[in-house]
């Protein structure tokens, strides 16, 4: 045991040496200089994989949208523009023809043709795909020639292509050669090639991807739209930074060119700091409250034998008891847009016809008394605490406001994993009163009507996310008509009609669209899209 | 010695099984993984199909048996979020955590022991009082707060050290190290201090208390009587005799450091296992959570074993007793 006799002093000396060496090494050398046109940004979550069909979620779709392109794309103001398809026409009400762009190449050099579109259409509808809503299962995709594809529908569908900006076209040969025809899934035994590698047609290609650590994108020098490009960055680095304080610090210290989201309470600091600014704007997601209007007796209430939420007056009383301006100022620090509708004004042309039921606690009290609940009642509220901006604080504010009309709300705020496991259809809609957020992925009102407002069965078929079971058969009738109406003006009128009924019924209580909050370095120009997607082809570094 | 180690190994297996079953029971209560794996518009029928494919509808004991069986072969399944094998993900993250933990432990030992010795010998020096005050701060402030304070001072205000991440890494085959690049070393400083501060104060206080006790012992008086230099008495005789409890505590604390790296890694976005674990919890990624807990349990068991063996090495009396029996 010789080494054990080594004196404690020697240990100390060696330790000191090691530490000193470490410190000297760190100080003496400087950090590697980044390229002038490298754009570094941080998001709170991780890019979970590179397979564009395995997760239907904004951040994943938006990020991969720089690598994979759809037949259509959306501009800075979210208007639909030609993407990989130069143009399209509706030949018959049920047959759409897409003319594909010529001379487009994938990152590996393969040509982009109609075969790739047909292949991608099958892949995106396959069992493991999470993007099945992009094309209906009964739609036939026919190749007419190498650069023309027909989509044959069973019924007219005016919004067939609304979500196609996030349906990136994949290379058939590449997928087949690398055994990536199947969409990446959690039940895979071996990692799917497409989940760690990417081959799109977009302006950027993936240079490296370290799961959950860092993803690097390089400019695609052979992009088809290169002549018309409006960006000057040639390298983009994405890192996830989960901790809010660290993410903000990384921007303030100049290590990052852009971070998002910035917590609302830090916006002022980011804005007042030299060299950074806060970029805010309304997001598409609508936050709302829902009430169980279906059961004959509420699961969580002291009212027995009947369900107070079945009475429209009670629902309206709840609505009018909520001071939405106070929530905006106090909870959201001004960063929210009070909503009268269950859809963002960006996504529905006639939304300016609608106004919220006014905040009026006195009227609310009277409505409660008329309904026979002059003394109020008790009900439990389910609320997530890590899903939406300040979600738990919103619920607390609502709890306090409802107390003023005599309603005692027992708040049950939990992490999203627990919350969704409790209230969703898989657990039998186990809630009486809840807060939820919804963004129609299709950018269209029909999605809201059919997912949130359609009558449902006790098991949840027809309208699985209508947790409270709001039901008005007249709304359902209109919804069915809206689905197949090809005339936009008539269609919008019908949507407005349906929304008006829902508003009068107080089927839900819309609260607001939460705000987007990005922190951006002053030497960066970029476009903040209301769908919270960051497109690198809008980024310029000064 | 062999019998001793064997006995310890058997105990270890038992401990691991208990951890596995506890972990598995806990997962029932973290939420529903399927909702975290799909977009909001995925229909309930598809969600149900996915649940079926993942085997989540099977009886809990069957899931557990399958899990233990696979874990014994180092197969921890496929991550729900990343859709990649968990064993690979954890192995990728392991170097980051180990480098951070070892740097913190080195920091704790190399700073803690000298500070402890100094405060033990010069009890009334003003510097001792400063050390003791600092150590009080180290013990009482929560890790994440220290981390955020350090970031605020050194990254945001002084802008000398990075606020997050691991800097540039060098790939050495199976080990990706940040110790060979300047940015990697710079990135290590703040997290290592944050993570090691608590252990440093602990070691300092322990060494101080032990020193105070040992310095009163007879053999120290005899050593002084023999005319040995202060240096020899303090370091060769006194310090060495304080080391047994220090080794125990340091060894066990190394396990703590690795386990508590979760918080430091989250604050500094340090791409180690702890960060992976925390994000797995938020997303109910059961395979990652299970594998991580098993691995941590294994590390603790292993460290305990090593500490037990070190006793044999450091303390001759233990060896003698064994041979006598």
Outline the secondary-structure elements.
The complex is a heterodimer of chains A (542) and B (325).
Chain A: H1 8-28, E1 38-43, H2 58-64, E2 72-74, E3 80-82, E4 85-92, E5 95-100, H3 114-124, E6 140-145, E7 148-152, H4 172-177, H5 193-196, E8 204-210, E9 214-219, E10 235-240, H6 244-252, E11 258-260, H7 267-272, E12 276-291, H8 312-321, H9 324-331, E13 336-338, H10 361-370, E14 378-384, H11 391-403, E15 408-414, H12 416-423, E16 433-438, H13 445-453, H14 473-484, H15 488-505, E17 508-521, E18 524-525, E19 540-541
Parallel strand pairs in A: 1-10, 1-11, 14-15
Antiparallel strand pairs in A: 2-3, 4-5, 5-7, 6-7, 8-9, 9-10, 11-17, 12-16, 12-17, 13-17, 18-19
Helix pairs in contact in A: 8-10, 13-14, 13-15, 14-15
Chain B: H1 2-27, H2 33-37, H3 44-53, H4 60-72, H5 86-121, H6 126-140, H7 143-157, E1 170-172, E2 175-177, H8 182-215, H9 218-225, H10 230-267, H11 273-282, H12 286-314, H13 316-324
Antiparallel strand pairs in B: 1-2
Helix pairs in contact in B: 1-12, 5-6, 5-8, 5-10, 6-8, 7-8, 8-10, 10-11, 10-12, 11-12, 12-13
Verbal overview:
The complex is a heterodimer of chains A (542) and B (325). With 542 residues, chain A is α+β, with helices and mostly antiparallel strands. Helices cover 28% and strands 21% of the residues of chain A. Chain A has 15 helices and 19 strands. In chain A, helix 13 (445-453) runs parallel beside helix 15 (488-505). The longest helix of chain A is centred in the N-terminal third of the chain and has 21 residues, at 8-28. The N and C termini of chain A lie far apart (64 Å). The model of chain B has no long low-confidence stretch (mean pLDDT 85). Chain B has helices spanning 2-27, 33-37, 44-53, 60-72, 86-121, 126-140, 143-157, 182-215, 218-225, 230-267, 273-282, 286-314, 316-324; strands spanning 170-172, 175-177. Chain B has 325 residues and is an all-alpha fold. Chain B is globular and about 85 Å long. Chains A and B meet through helix 1, helix 6 and helix 12 of A and helix 2, helix 3, helix 5, helix 7 and helix 8 of B.
